[in-house]
UniProtKB/TrEMBL annotation:
Keywords: ATP-binding, Lipid biosynthesis, Lipid metabolism, Lyase, Nucleotide-binding. PANTHER family: DIPHOSPHOMEVALONATE DECARBOXYLASE. This is diphosphomevalonate decarboxylase. Belongs to the diphosphomevalonate decarboxylase family. Gene3D superfamilies: 3.30.230.10, GHMP kinase, C-terminal domain. Residues 6-161 form the Diphosphomevalonate decarboxylase-like N-terminal domain. Pfam families: MDD_C, MVD-like_N. InterPro entries: GHMP_kinase_C_sf, Mev_decarb, Mev_diP_decarb, MVD-like_N, Mvd1_C, Ribosomal_Su5_D2-typ_SF, Ribsml_uS5_D2-typ_fold_subgr. The gene is mvaD. Residues 175-305 form the Mvd1 C-terminal domain. The keyword Ligase does not apply.
Length: 323
């Protein structure tokens, strides 16, 4: 039996498209910030008494369909370790409010850590990152803390994350703005697949990412929060242009998303530097220097309410305990 705690991450240069669906090899590199406030804790127990895998998420037993991706990782761990018992998986998402920012990134990183350790495997961080990748692409990066790069590689061996700056020693912060969401979500998995297959801009996106990766690494070295934020904002808009330009076109934005984008632009026009990024949903994350936090929180509280804002510092890498 083992337990792992992994934090979620938000991409500053996005992963949006796979080269290999089965192995989850991405089309491009990507780079993210691991967040302190959002994490998943998962316990895995391989037990010879069980007659099937049992997966609990936030105390709810998942049915076979919902548990499929989890069982896929358990099967990989059984293959690697030679253990052939079924497992009980208990996973809890820690998010400060009910409005979901629960992420497959922290979930599959914690699962990879707990399952491999419970099976007696002692994987290196690199191999843990490769295993987490098989559950969800963004989970590849949640093995490490701070600023993390996922090198796309070309196959299962060469596609893994590596830390760029684990202990972030400059005052970058991220504010999660939890936007109201009622509409059924298009999963990132199918959204990116249709973008790759149908957006006429996909080739341009590959070039954008290559250029942004070089630029953001320089900005990180220079501890230049404004430049990091600017690159992240442009990159996010260009990712979302792939959804708008797919066939059929779609968007993850809603009216509130646009309201928050406008508020960030207003703040900037008033000399308070901050930048936005969005993933496969309407929530907005704002990037800024800690010294601007109060002004940004005040302005956004007036628009959306204080209880829908969560300030987060950079967070740590995965921790695993054997029990
Ligand atoms: C917009 O990692 O959720 O958050 O690999 O199909 O599980 P799968 O997709 P997922 O996609 C994340 C997309 C993103 C950008 C990013 O995190 O890089």
């Amino acid at each position: 039996m083992a337990t792992a705690k992994a934090h979620t991450n938000i991409a500053l240069v996005k992963y949006w498209g796979k080269e290999n669906q089965e192995l989850i090899i991405p089309q491009t590199d990507s780079l993210s910030l691991t967040l302190n406030e959002f994490y998943t804790t998962t316990t895995v127990n391989f037990d010879d008494q069980l007659t099937s895998d049992q997966v609990y998420v936030d105390k709810q037993l998942l049915d076979q369909q919902d548990a499929k991706k989890v069982v896929h990782i358990l099967n990989l761990v059984r293959e690697l370790s030679g253990i052939n018992y079924f497992a009980k998986v208990n996973s809890t998402n820690h998010v400060p409010t009910a409005a979901g920012l629960a992420s497959s990134a922290s979930a599959f990183a914690a699962l990879a850590g707990a399952a491999s350790s419970a099976a007696g495997l002692k994987l290196s961080s690199r191999d843990l990152s490769r295993l987490a990748r098989r559950g969800s692409g963004s989970a590849t990066r949640s093995i490490y803390g701070g600023l993390v790069e996922w090198q796309k590689g070309t196959d299962d061996q060469s596609s893994f994350a590596k830390p760029i700056l684990e202990d972030v020693d400059f005052p970058i912060e991220m504010l999660a703005v939890l936007v109201n969401t009622k509409k059924k979500k298009i999963s990132s998995r199918s959204g990116m697949q249709s973008s790759v297959a149908t957006s006429p801009y996909y080739d341009a996106w590959r070039k954008v990412v290559a250029r942004d990766m070089t630029a953001i690494k320089k900005a990180i070295k220079a501890k230049d929060i404004d430049l990091i934020g600017h690159i992240a904002e442009e990159n996010a808009l260009r990712m979302h242009a792939l959804t708008l330009s797919a066939d059929p076109g779609f968007t993850y934005f809603n009216a509130e998303t646009l309201t928050i984008i406008k508020a960030v632009q207003d703040l900037r026009n008033n000399g308070i530097n901050c930048y936005y990024t969005m993933d496969a949903g309407p929530n907005v994350k704002v990037i800024y220097d800690r010294m601007n936090r109060e002004k940004i929180v005040t302005k956004l509280s007036n628009i959306i309410g204080h209880d829908r804002l969560v300030v987060s510092q950079p967070g740590p890498g995965i921790k695993i305990w054997n029990e």
